[in-house]
Amino acid sequence: MIENPLLGITLALASTLLFSLSDATAKFLTGSLPAVEIAWIRYLIFMGFALALTVGSGPGRFRVRRPGLQVIRGLGLVSSSLAFIFALHYLPLADATSIGFVSPLLTAMLAVPILGEVVGLRRWAAAIIGFIGVIVVVRPGTGAFQPAAILVLLSSLSWAVASVLTRMVAGVDSSATTLLWSAGTGLLLLSAALPFDFLLPAPREFLFLLLLGVVASSGHYLTVLAYRHAAA
């Protein structure tokens, strides 16, 4: 891997912007559609996106050196998406997003024992400041505490695990193949649950589902690229 921290940070910021748009779209859709269905459509488009990126690769597109890590990474991503979409049904988008800022702290904490990365004082300070903001929003132990905040925390933990694993597989498997495994793992899991929670979307809802899938898939791709260039 060629280290280029500035490029990695830029790609991470761009992916965050796309995920913000997808979160807003998901929040709109949770008013009328089940979370599992929203996530399934998102992953169906994600799978098509990943297949398009690997056109011409032949059977080799499915070949990876670390299949176990790829599956765990895929499970982390789909768990993060599903938990966050469920939480959006109960929490304002601003609150859910603010609580999600705990993810960088969790990623930094996991990167030390798993990746052996050195997290300097400035990075810890930035992560801790973000965590203090999370505590202010969640307000544990008060009457303002929302149990749905736990779903966002679980989503953040799952995302942090997936982020660390993204860094681990970045040097051995291609970005497109990593996306393909992530999409496939999530799609299989959600397809098993879909028959129990499905409503036929209206034409307008279907357009928003398409937007959600395209934007979120692009965000995932930029995230994989970001971890190829910068430490977690």
Give a written overview of the molecule.
- The chain is an all-alpha fold and 232 residues long.
- It has one domain (5-229).
- It has nine helices and no strands.
- The protein has helices at residues 5-29, 35-53, 67-88, 93-99, 103-115, 121-138, 149-170, 175-193, 203-229.
- α1 runs antiparallel to α9 (203-229) and α7 (149-170) packs across α9.
- The longest helix is centred in the last third of the chain and has 27 residues, at 203-229.
- The radius of gyration is 17 Å and the shape is globular.
- The mean pLDDT is 85.
Gist?
With 232 residues, this protein is mainly α. The protein has helices spanning 5-29, 35-53, 67-88, 93-99, 103-115, 121-138, 149-170, 175-193, 203-229. Helix content is 74%, strand content 0%.
In sequence order, what are the helices and strands, one letter per element? HHHHHHHHH
Q: Give the helix/strand class.
A: mainly alpha
Low-pLDDT residue spans: none
Query: How many strand units?
Result: 0
Strand content: under 5%
* Alpha carbon gap, first and last residue: 13 Å
Number of helices: 9
Please tell me the total number of domains.
1
Q: Cα-atom Rg, whole angstroms?
A: 17 Å
Largest sheet: none
* General shape: globular
- What share of residues is helical? over 70%
Overall mean pLDDT: 85
